[in-house]
Amino acid sequence: MTAVESFVEVAGGKVQMMQGGSGRPLLILHHDVGNPGWLPFYDTLATDCLVYVPSHPGFGKSERPEWMRTIRDMAIVYEWLLNVLNVGPCPIIGLGLGGWIAAEMAMMCRHTLSHLVLVNAAGLQPREGEILDQFLINTIDYLRSGFENQDKYVELYTAEPSLDQLEQWEINREMTSRIAYKPYMYDPTLPHLIRGISTPTLIVWGAQNRIVPRICGEQYREAIRGARLEIVAGAGHFLEVEKPAELATMVKDFVSRDS
Amino acid sequence: MHLMYFTEQPMSSYPEEEGRKFGYTALLFSNRHFDPVEGARLYEQRIIEYQLVEEVGFDGIMLNEHHNAPFCMQAKCNVMASVLAGLTKRVKLVLLGNPLPIAENPIRLAEELAMIDMISKGRLVSGFVRGGGVESLATNTNPAYNRERFEEAHDLIIKTWTVPGPWRWEGRHYQFRVVNPWVLPLQKPHPRIWIPGVSSRETIVWAAQHRYPYIALNTSIEDSKKIWQYYDEAAQKAGYQSGPEQRGYLIRCHVQDTEEKALRNAREFMWMQGEFTGLMHPVWAAPSGYLGPWARRALAEVHVGRRPNPAAGLPFEKQIQRMLIIAGTPDQVVAKLRIILEETRPSILALWGNDGKISHEDSKNCIRLLGTEVLPRLREIAKELNLASPFELNSPVSLAESPLAQQSAAAS
Question: For B300, which of A135, A137, A166 is closest by C-beta distance?
Answer without folding.
Answer: A166
